[in-house]
Amino acid sequence: MIDLIQQYWQQLLYTNGYHFTGVAVTLWLLVISISCGFVISIGLSIARVSEHKWLQFPVWLFTYVFRGTPLYVQLLIIYSGLYSLDAIRSHEFLNWFFKSGYRCTILALVLNTCAYTTEIFAGAIRSIPKGEIEAAHAYGFSNWKLYRYVIIPSALRKAIPAYSNEVILMLHATSLAFTATVPDILKIARDMNSQTYMTFDAFGIAAIIYMCISFSLIGLFRQAERRWLKHLEPAQSA
């Protein structure tokens, strides 16, 4: 029994040849999903606040669907539902892509976090004072320079508190990867529980690891807030 527990600890924390550990897989899923979602959502958030309905409506529909349905259902549709279609299996690239649990999990996570992040950034863009935009226009900024040097930097700074919550939620959401047989922290904890019946130990260890990662991320975002949002802190009276 002790040897079996040590084996699962090794799968969670220590590298074993070319195999990733459970912690490494969880962090890999998190970094890939939030990085891709972050980059895509910047462009979508600009379209979301556009005055052109043909730009705004498709983005609104995308965020409405992915924020209105559970991530678990989205993962099941992408991993199991799409691969059951003949059109997917008959296409060489699509068949290669959707038969992988890793790729399906990443796609589901990216689409989900992109929807939420788009709305976060769009709200931050709307909150920018009109005076800043008018000042940029007075200096002769084009729309491209306006978004690049004024709107996007200001919106990203304002969105840090809300975006930090989204990153933590995405860390927790990676635990659904076991659905696609991806060996993340929860998948290894479930395997340990099924082999040893030590439910409290198996899932307790997983909970502690998730907490440690969460608190580390919270600390990093607090540092970012103190650096980039210091000008928004209330002035201290003498």
TrEMBL record:
Residues passing through the membrane, by range: 20-47, 59-80, 167-186, 198-221
Record domain ABC transmembrane type-1: where: 23-221
InterPro entries: AA_ABC_Transporter_Permease (IPR051322), AA_ABC_transptr_permease_3TM (IPR010065), MetI-like (IPR000515), MetI-like_sf (IPR035906)
Broad class of where this protein is predominantly found: membrane
SUPFAM superfamilies: MetI-like
Top-level taxon of origin: Bacteria
One BP term from GO: amino acid transport
Topology within the bilayer: Multi-pass membrane protein
GO CC annotations, alphabetized: ATP-binding cassette (ABC) transporter complex
UniProt KW keywords: Amino-acid transport, Cell inner membrane, Cell membrane, Membrane, Transmembrane, Transmembrane helix, Transport
Location relative to the cell: Cell inner membrane; Cell membrane
GO molecular function (one): transmembrane transporter activity
Quaternary structure and interacting proteins, as annotated: The HisPMQJ complex is composed of two ATP-binding proteins (HisP), two transmembrane proteins (HisM and HisQ) and a solute-binding protein (HisJ). The HisPMQ-ArgT complex is composed of two ATP-binding proteins (HisP), two transmembrane proteins (HisM and HisQ) and a solute-binding protein (ArgT).
Record-stated family: Belongs to the binding-protein-dependent transport system permease family. HisMQ subfamily.
Protein name stated in the entry: Histidine/lysine/arginine/ornithine transport system permease protein HisM
